[in-house]
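Q: Joint fold for the lines below.
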Amino acid sequence: MVGGGPGAGIAPAHRRAARLDGRFELVAGAFSRKPEGNRAMGEELGIAPDRTYRDFAAMAEAEARRSDGIECASIVTPNSTHAAASLAFIRNGIDVVCDKPMTMSLAEALEVERAAATHGVLFALTHNYSAYPLVAEARHQIGSGELGAIRVVTVEYAHGTRNRLIEAEGDAKMAWRVDSAIAGPSTVLGDIGTHAHHLLRRFTGLEIESLTAELSTMVPGRVADDNAFVNLRFHGGARGQLWASMVAAGNGHGLRIRVFGEKASLHWDQETPDELFLRADGAPYRTLRRGEAYLCATARHASRTKAGNPEGYFGAFANIYADAAEVISARRDGRPANPCASSFATARDGVLGMAFIEAAIASHRNGGAWTDAAPDARR
Amino acid sequence: MVGGGPGAGIAPAHRRAARLDGRFELVAGAFSRKPEGNRAMGEELGIAPDRTYRDFAAMAEAEARRSDGIECASIVTPNSTHAAASLAFIRNGIDVVCDKPMTMSLAEALEVERAAATHGVLFALTHNYSAYPLVAEARHQIGSGELGAIRVVTVEYAHGTRNRLIEAEGDAKMAWRVDSAIAGPSTVLGDIGTHAHHLLRRFTGLEIESLTAELSTMVPGRVADDNAFVNLRFHGGARGQLWASMVAAGNGHGLRIRVFGEKASLHWDQETPDELFLRADGAPYRTLRRGEAYLCATARHASRTKAGNPEGYFGAFANIYADAAEVISARRDGRPANPCASSFATARDGVLGMAFIEAAIASHRNGGAWTDAAPDARR
Amino acid sequence: MVGGGPGAGIAPAHRRAARLDGRFELVAGAFSRKPEGNRAMGEELGIAPDRTYRDFAAMAEAEARRSDGIECASIVTPNSTHAAASLAFIRNGIDVVCDKPMTMSLAEALEVERAAATHGVLFALTHNYSAYPLVAEARHQIGSGELGAIRVVTVEYAHGTRNRLIEAEGDAKMAWRVDSAIAGPSTVLGDIGTHAHHLLRRFTGLEIESLTAELSTMVPGRVADDNAFVNLRFHGGARGQLWASMVAAGNGHGLRIRVFGEKASLHWDQETPDELFLRADGAPYRTLRRGEAYLCATARHASRTKAGNPEGYFGAFANIYADAAEVISARRDGRPANPCASSFATARDGVLGMAFIEAAIASHRNGGAWTDAAPDARR
Amino acid sequence: MVGGGPGAGIAPAHRRAARLDGRFELVAGAFSRKPEGNRAMGEELGIAPDRTYRDFAAMAEAEARRSDGIECASIVTPNSTHAAASLAFIRNGIDVVCDKPMTMSLAEALEVERAAATHGVLFALTHNYSAYPLVAEARHQIGSGELGAIRVVTVEYAHGTRNRLIEAEGDAKMAWRVDSAIAGPSTVLGDIGTHAHHLLRRFTGLEIESLTAELSTMVPGRVADDNAFVNLRFHGGARGQLWASMVAAGNGHGLRIRVFGEKASLHWDQETPDELFLRADGAPYRTLRRGEAYLCATARHASRTKAGNPEGYFGAFANIYADAAEVISARRDGRPANPCASSFATARDGVLGMAFIEAAIASHRNGGAWTDAAPDARR
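A: Joint structure:
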């Protein structure tokens, strides 16, 4: 693991996710750039002292040389080091599971994507909110034609966790997230907008053709943006809205998606992830539930307990690690991986996420003009 | 009553709304331009034959001359005759309750507003979805500072009732609503967008400064628009989104609003109108319920039964008629009207609704450019 | 109308219910035993002075003699005069709509039932909470075999409106309801338990074979009961629970029913009456909505507005008056009444309600022994 | 681990729960009485062959002799071996985490309780559904007087997983649960009723004084019971209902509790465990959310991620293992354990659970007579 020193935000969730299904063992790390914190975390986690490294570069090189070196590196640093750390492991032939957003820029993302392809390693991005079983079911229902052609998509990730000027209140865990130099050129899109962007692509299968964006800073005194309205035109003619906000007080976690088609719509909310609502006018509304035998194979694969026992956040996050383990072990064993092991985002998904951010910034700077979504991301 | 002949859509709701509280008696009408339908409806409603008129012009003149002439005319025709019918009664000194949207254009709306002022009569617009008690409570909470400064508003009125090409299927009640010549220059904004627009103004007290709009036609073969995304900038700096759609399959009635402030947010849905959600991070979420003594005076005034008995659609619609009756009788009695009798929209509200439509159309035609919301509506 | 003087609780709802569909005109009344209150209410309601009567006996006789006498009397007095007032009108050949519970005892109820049969008049009991469209739909679904054989029913009517000793606080509207001499031998069963009892019979079609009851007084200082647990065995083998309580603080209106069958279950709550949940394991849950074309004829008949506009409490209450009007006018016109006009409870329903109360009291006094539900009610 | 061989139901949840927080390592087991299954499971879990034992007796003895022997045994066998397996480890000084119900009889439970006391080891019972953070918060709210004196409690654990005669369909995982010889004298109470019983005690702090029970077999052909209605009288005067059912088709997981006090009520449902509803009449309803700083220390201790990320079933189950680890390591380290480490049920809780079952059976056999709840369980 790279990152995840004392006080880190997301690292404990990664560790729990990796542990839940028992397919990973944490044996090495570069947890913090501060030597004491690094050592302390290594000890707390039971890491051998010689495998607690001062930085990711040292770790990648040393582990690559060990006969019992790590098979996979989990990168949970702030956004600004995602690219460099990923490249260090990739170039040493070590698989990577990386927290989102993929990088700081589209150019970096394309470089990581090319490196992973060149070295033949896995690059898995932890868009954990898209790893719920019923997100896969939604895609299956849409793919099966249950909605007909999609007309409108609305997705939002809007919460109020930065509704005050917390960066002035000494909250270290939060401060970097509103600092463009670390969090990226659009804080609100990099930190949470990419989750919404990936969810809508994974949920619907649609790709964005063009967009118009308005990025705002609503909290007085803040330098970064904290609210984004992005309107979308999809290939094929559907329209959509994406709203990302850090100033939506009292909105809970706030990640929700609705997809409206010719015949019906799908509704899903991350706070109640075990229910997927399928609604057509003129017919009883339907609620699909995680854990039921009627779900598609991928949704069943992504589930551990029967319907009614809420599987929750750690279940979804663990799916990403379990599926990465499946892909890695299948490759090692020379067998095809289970095709249902698809909960993680790929390098391509990450590239499109960075392209989305850059297009939104360009539109915003151009007075909200309609902007091609991903010209430079195309292969 | 003008309009409301056999098969009319909204007229029965107006009649039930007027009856519920027993403050109106229906004694005259011009129900249909088709003589047989007009006569039949007059008979069905127990109207004296000499007070069943061939058209609104004849009705306005004749009733104005009778010593027992009507005090108030209810206008429930398709949109294109709202202005002419309203003017006919206003100019004969008869109060008017009129269905929305106010008129076909801003110019017409301004003319009606001026006429009502000149003749000293009431012009009440039936934005019935804004007449629920908890909409008034929301305004009270916001006015009391419970949310702090408002940062973001999202309002939507999106349903799927015209998700098929119903105008090609012989549905007369629906057909005119997708015909610009009768429904107005933007069908989706005139028919339902104005409800969302009025709700957001009444709920929040905010006024729109500028907007950008994208109007679309999603159903193949349709000539009118059926989906609108409108982004909003409010005086004072808040931002917002308004989504109006007739193609949101399976979205139920689909009128919902959320207001996010510095300290908390309010959430309300017309399908569950007896609950208002007041949510702040770091405190238990609160649910306010219609019928409770802790609500503001206007919310209590607008309610007829105790909390837990769902008061529903007819209760809200009846508030408009009851409040119009209060204003009319207070003026007749030379006393101040109950200040809580405020559930109906005014001529000014209607004018701003038409200005909103025209600004949205202008923005849309200009590639989504930010457009001043109401330059010509200002007094 | 008999009862409904100044400050009366339920009378305004009856008047609104009778007005909503325009099939009744209120022309006579004996509103209060207090002369001033009686006269004042007559004036407020626009009743001719000679048709504002000092009591129901005078009213029944005088109206029966008038050529334009009332067709139907609405009885909204406290429980203790339901029987005498009903009999006065019935014996004068006047149809009766009566508030629940039917009477103070089974013997009285049987007398009213026999009198109505003898005189050929309608006796309609306003179990308004069973008059919602989706209650009829539930019965239809069960009758259609959608649930298979019913196994378990749970019904509850539990709220907290008498959770304090309000009878000691001078609340006149509430005080009589906890006074056995006026409200009946079991206050909690007479006032609200009979609503739950009727709902379960109307919803399911089941009849109770035997029961065991525990009646309790939970509020210190109260003389009447305020909480009842009644366990049920139905003809055919199903089991059930009925809970009636006035001390369930914070439980809202609190009338809910669930029916579990071999194949699926139905769930309904009076606070959200426009939704009926039909749930089977191993299949998506279904939500049926009022106003949809897929509902049974009776549910469609009982509905006035499209799905999504909450029809609410007054809609259900008005169904009873509208259906009584249909039965009365059909009989007058010599035609069969619309078979869907079935929202009101009959004299037989009222008789079984009184039998239920008496059986529950008998069980309670006998230490909770299983008790035959209705031996003396059988015809 | 004892039990949890191939195809076992609950064992994978125990393993995930033990892994989530990284405080346990699985190093030994007696997974199955079938040698092949036992060996295969040991291999799958990476257990050394010499620590994969043929049965729990051999395991307890051998591990007690090893210097690196297990500190704690997790017992996940069918109910009939809980007592014997627990005693084997307890008598060898090894701490025990045991699945519920504690034993097959009250006598056995008392024996286990005494043995654990004598040997000074931990006996933790996995009533995992009571280990959610908001269950602890409910107890805190009640203890703080937020509800006033409790008047009525309703708890139910009713699902439809055995609504068909699955024991005749070859479902091995389910078959033993409806076999009294393995599941206990009342199947429905042993398997699920004890969860409801423990939840109500943990949630409220109330203890049952007496009860009346009706146990039924609703599925034709079944020999065990599958539905239980139990009415309760608590010490202090409160009344309650407990419903346990395996035939409630379409009721989801079905574990829910409501507690009504003088001033307010609490409502909680295991399917949405991150929300606790606190409702008083005359005040806005409140929703308390897991992960918030306003919760009590125990509720905060039991939580791993911020509000809005659903923590779910594995989080609650893992609390039991984490709290057992805390108690065990505190004892080893000679320090007081964190007083918040209280999510597991104790031997005393298990004893009262068995007393509850035996009292309910006695009442049922005695025609539903009121029966003392726990005469022989008292110490």
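Q: Anything notable?
A: Chain C is about 35% helix and 20% strand. Chain C touches chain A through twelve residues (CB under 8 Å).
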